[in-house]
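Dear colleagues,

As part of the handover before I leave the project, I'm documenting each prediction I ran so the next person doesn't have to rerun anything. This entry is a single chain, and its sequence is reproduced below.
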Amino acid sequence: MNPGMLIGIGSYLLWGLLPLFWKLLGDISALEVLSHRMLWSFVFFLFLIVARRDFTVINRIKKEPKQLFFYLISSILISLNWFVYIWCVINGHVVEASLGYFINPLIAVALGVIFLKERLQIMQLGAIILALLGVLYLTFVFGSLPWRGLILAFSFGLYGLVKKGVKLPSIEGMTVETCFQFVPALLYIIYLSNNGTGNFGAGKPYLSILFIISGIVTGFPLLLFSIASKKITLSQLGILQYISPTLQMLIGIIVYQEPFPLNKLIGFCLIWISVILYTYEGVRRYRQNGLFNSRRKKLNS
């Protein structure tokens, strides 16, 4: 197998296993866990920058200071996404969280049509309609909108949309992004410590270790993903991205025994069919474009 594929699979497997890690912090408030995730993620990415001795990010930001605005917005969106996800895991909604990441690519397509005026293919439209029907079905059957999953899908979709406007490589970009998160996270952790309600350096020692590791479990899969994205095609990445929510859903059902009745399965099946249609269309278009470009190169040579 292509090494790039193995690296990509590794990154999505790690993302899929994240509920197991956040569940270890289940006795801690989601906001405190989020604060440590933001703080130690910045430390992790800053360490990578220092280890590589690549400080060109400073000069790039100086040349285009407006990039900071995009990173400020993206940091707010990803903070919301992280908070809701951590809250879902801690409070026993892992399956609903996985729903958000299943439909996220479809949300991204819809946002591209609305904000970037991208053209929507018929099969993509059909996939979005099916996903919408699945969400409506789940809402009708269970009497409430799966809002946590939708917040995850829309926040990550908008995050991807904002990231279209940034130009820094992934590691440098995440360093700037988490830099915006660092200050409020540090202030909140100091506030908890002064109140005597913080868990870092107090009480159970293993909690402090887990807080520090949270930066690694956030940054390391992203590092693997950035390597894989340079070695394999977009269509291959598009297929691999469903490893993560599938694994999350299985963990929610099998490990944490969250309820998954037949009615919920029907709603998820509608969403899975929409995902299959979306993935098929993406692979088909990628191959068509690749074939067209190769023929054009032959004609021009």
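The mean pLDDT is 88. The first helix runs from residue 3 to 16.

All the best with the project,
I.
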